[in-house]
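Input sequence (406 aa), recorded before submission:
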Amino acid sequence: MPVFVYRALDSKGRAHEDQIVAESLVSAREAIRRKGFYPVEVRDDRAGFWTSPLLALPFRGERLSFAELVGFTRQLATLLNAGIQVVPAFSLLIRQTREEAARRVLTKIREAVNEGASLSGAMGAYPRVFSNLYVSMVRAGESSGALGTVLERLAHYLELQQKLRRRLTGALAYPALMTLVGFAAMFFMMIYVVPNVVQIFRQARQELPWPTRMLIQASEALSAHYALILLGVAILAGAAVAWSFTKQGREFIDRAKLRIPLIGGLVHKRAVARFGRTLGVLLAAGLPILEAASVARLVLTNTALEAAVEEAREEVHKGKRLGSALERSGLFPPLFTDMVGVGEQSGSLDKMLIHVSDYLDQESEATIQTLMSLVEPLLILVMGAVVGFIVVATLLPLFEISQLIR
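Predicted structure, token format:
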């Protein structure tokens, strides 16, 4: 249903501004009067929302960025722990939110809760905003009566994920930029620079050295067929992406990710750490271990690991311990399974999971730093070798021509 922005007066003549969800403008005015207000101005919130062509995309109405979600969770936890009820807390957050898409989503959730729906149920209606993990933790907080505490744990978890994302993005930015600039420079030289130099060689009518002949052949092929080459690369990339969305493609890629030297170990550690931290947070929120494992399995994003967790979950359902069940899969590090076993025996599984996940994250960061320290000089060497070959292949005939002139 659409969201309406209104300005109204109460019985004492005080002005109030807020948003309300209704089927039509008439329904919105009736709902405002039922609140005891006299509507002065009521307008469809989409009138201002669709003014920008960029913001007029269909999906903008039900999307929050990850940063917005983190900030919203932290603010909501603070308000609830301060003793403010859910609906007034949402009203405060709506007034503080500047992003129109976020305000629309929060308004609809507030109205649903105000009409009797649970907060987890209202959030569950927006799966593109609130993940299964988020909704499950909110549901656990509602069941335990400690929603503010659970949201605070969730906010801490999301903030940590945001920090890890930023570190990984920052580590990959320089190599990605270097690769892009290097390929652009080589493409420019092969398309525009080398063909002009070749004319000098042809006018000299002398036998060219083999590096120059190779360079000329590559340049001519690229100049004549670069459109077909780019089209072929785009088609192959599109076919690979489409295949990766199939069941067989995803399973093959997920298995291959874990076997790549160096990178496979990093992907493995990060996935296990993400699973362990999520499971620990869910258990600390009060979810039963079977439900918590089912939700935490979704954050692995690897079919092989997901299948191993599902098998372990079935064994736990039969009465086995989680640590031994994960160990039998052979896909979880011994340190992780041993710590899970210790946590089960001591009755502090949630704390142990978060502790071992912190350790794995630290190892992952150390691995990333090591890889980046190797990747940067390796990229420089590769780009330098390619550019050096082009320069040498271009200069060799010029040196020979200058010798002939002397």
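Checked by second reader. The longest strand covers residues 3-9.
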